[in-house]
Amino acid sequence: MRPEPRSRDETLALRRRLVGSSCKLFFSNDPVKIVKAKGQYMYDENGRQYLDCINNVAHVGHCHPAIVKAAHEQSQLLNTNSRYLHDNLVDYAERLSKTLPGKLCTFYFLNSGSEANDLALRLARQYTKHEDVIVLDHAYHGHLTSLIDISPYKFRNLEGQKEWVHVAPVPDTYRGIYREDHEDSVTAYANEVKNIIEQAQKRGRKIAAFFAESLPSVGGQIIPPAGYFQKAAEHVRKAGGIFIADEIQVGFGRVGKHFWAFQLQGEDFVPDIVTMGKPIGNGHPIACVATTTEIAEAFAATGVEYFNTFGGNPVSCAIGLAVLDVIEKEHLQAHATEVGNFLTELLKEQKMKHPIIGDVRGSGLFIGVDLIKDQAERTPATAEAEYLVTRLKEEYILLSTDGPGRNVLKFKPPMCFNKEDARYVVGTIDKLLTAMEKEDLNQQQTSTGAT
Length: 451
Prior knowledge:
There is one protein chain. The chain is α/β, with parallel strands linked by helices. The chain contains 13 helices and 15 strands. The strands form three sheets. It has a seven-stranded mixed beta sheet with strand order 4-10-9-8-7-5-6, sandwiched between helices. It has helices at 8-18, 65-77, 87-97, 113-128, 145-148, 152-155, 185-202, 228-238, 293-300, 314-329, 332-353, 382-394, 419-450, and strands at 34-38, 41-44, 49-52, 106-110, 132-136, 165-168, 207-213, 242-246, 273-276, 287-291, 357-363, 366-371, 397-398, 400-402, 408-411. The longest helix has 32 residues, at 419-450.
């Protein structure tokens, strides 16, 4: 053990020398060295406190004592693979089953969201005997080769779109092809999926799955209109495919009204497969796939065992159970609704004050603030968004951007984020936007005077 901690500059120099340059840092021009975290706060090497508005992985709060205790106690007893019987595995599967629709009753445990989505793809293909996948534009489903292929966010910068991948427009009613003034955006967006299927079938292609984030995150914190998944799923299932809901970013009560974000679509919608990751272990590497008995049996019929060395180990399952306990005991789903509604209203007040805010959208503690250059064209205010998150970091608030134009401020904080935090971050955004507007006005006056 090193007697003295390294300085930030020493750590940065070693990282640049030893870690692949494609592994990016937040605030790369002036990165933060984080050495401790608790609840919704993170601390740098000098003890300065940062409000964490983006870390949905630390779902119930950084270093929650109940999670730490569960990991510690089970680690002292046993950690091994799932080929041995252990109560934690079945207890955890049973607890998860109670949060899901009844037909989603078979579980596979893994270590990451990418592993979960890769397995979901395998399950879909084995069950349907089809190959092709429909995904939403700008989607990101993971870093494995199989998932880069179904992630437009990535493959458009690499080898491009594979023949078996079909991209549907993201159901964005703010800046998508069918907007809030369309008479029936739900049917219009679903018909885009129908058209894709028909064109694919004309070329002899067969659809295995429609793969969608329940709330597209990288795509810009999008809230699909209710009913869209039902209609899209109807077209997909008619073509012999299944519907996969990627809950890796937004599951476990984050949306407030429901435990799972796909439930925002309505009680009549049930996916065929649900994938889980990120918040499931509060920072511990756990993931899960939930599916139907029929799909699981078709997968088993190959005769090839599915085995994941660390998936479903006793320590991971103990942590997963502890996360569910904390969500329930601390009423975090209801908290997400209350605080999320409060934060959304504060942000909407800022929208009335600052023209750069084009849209505020979200559910619970999953919220996007779309920054624009002009109201008519809704041109993404990319540079302004980058400047704002940099200035927020200087005010000890950690926020980031997403969306194709990197202009959407994304809020997905630990679920213990509270109303005081909401007031603080929105007050700081107000202060910074006011200063930006004043500077812009001064520049315009200087330019006018010069002419």
